[in-house]
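anyone seen this seq b4? input:
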Amino acid sequence: MPAVNYPSMEGAECPWPVFEHLREEAPVYQIPDRPNLYIVSRYDDVRRIFGDPVLFSSFNSRDGLLGFDILLSTSSSGGHAMIQTDPPEHKAKRQLGFAPLKPGRLKAYQPMIERICDELIDAFIDDGRCDFVPAFAQQLPAILTLRLMGVPESDIGWVKLWAKFEASGASWMPQEFLDEQRRNGARMNQYLTARLRERFEAPQDDVMSDVIRAQIERDGTFDLEEVRAQVAVLLGGGVVTTAHFLASQLLLFLENPDQMARVRADLSLLPRAIEEGLRLEPPALWQPRRVTADTELAGVPIPEGSYVLVMQGSANRDATRFACPARFDVGRENVQEHMTFGHGIHFCLGAPLARMELRIAFERLFARLGDIRLGPDNDFTHLPSPSFRGLNKLDIEFDAAA
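predicted toks r here
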């Protein structure tokens, strides 16, 4: 079959036809100019890979993909984050990240999220229009992260740097971008190091202190690199993907007004609508894995030491699993089978917080904004990224709810 131009900057704007072509013609596709790199696109294969962390390892899974080291490494010896490890080490690291995400803690965050949403809406509601991306989608997760981390809101520029990072897709980014990412990474790591040392000396009621306490309880002494690596993952996941998805979800509602009307009339449908949005517009399109032994997928031999790009964005639109997969259907029965949060031991640790944040955001938006509609100043382009997916802007108009 002809060479497929993906991952690439050019193919990132609308990857769905490429994914469909791959699922039908080459479900395991060797990228021509990278002989040890394969794209896996069908649902069953994606689920199998996520469910087998021994054969498809996360440890060093990004060594062949420039960029992730820039995001997480904080010294020449840098610690490994939970998403880069396999059992049994993975479980211990995941427990550190789980400390601030326990159900009791999540429930306590709800009033804070509601206040942030209302503060953001207050800033633009009288205008009758806004660019939803900078006015709300980028702001909510950044401000929430600041408050959860216990750092001053004057430091929001530091947090927003996380939203500009490219992780596994950096191999396909221009050199100027990589140079800037290295510079920003050094700044971010210095900032995070300073805040963690402060929390170690004077613990507070915040996420960084929670992770430090959990790490000391586990290991006996404070390990700065270990804590820093896990907090970096929590930051990156919380800021980047949630910001991208908020705008994508609103656009899905606006493009499907009948479905939005169903949800506004019955908010009990909102969680299912969010899952359907996550299926259709995942903020991260794929994850890498390293193959630890010779194997075979869909009849294609894959040698030990190869890397596979696990296309959850493609799996979510596999017609063998989801009927009429391109349709936004808030009543879809099996929507929670989507692969956006992964599967198995690496299922997204922050999924419960993300789901709560998204639910509250749309509850407040629907409560306070009536007749939300697309504004005239939209081109519907997406950010230049081979692996993340998010709108550059979303111009909306609305009336204040009665």
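The CA atoms of residues 335 and 344 lie 17 Å apart. Residues 224-255 form the longest helix (32 residues). kinda curious what u guys think
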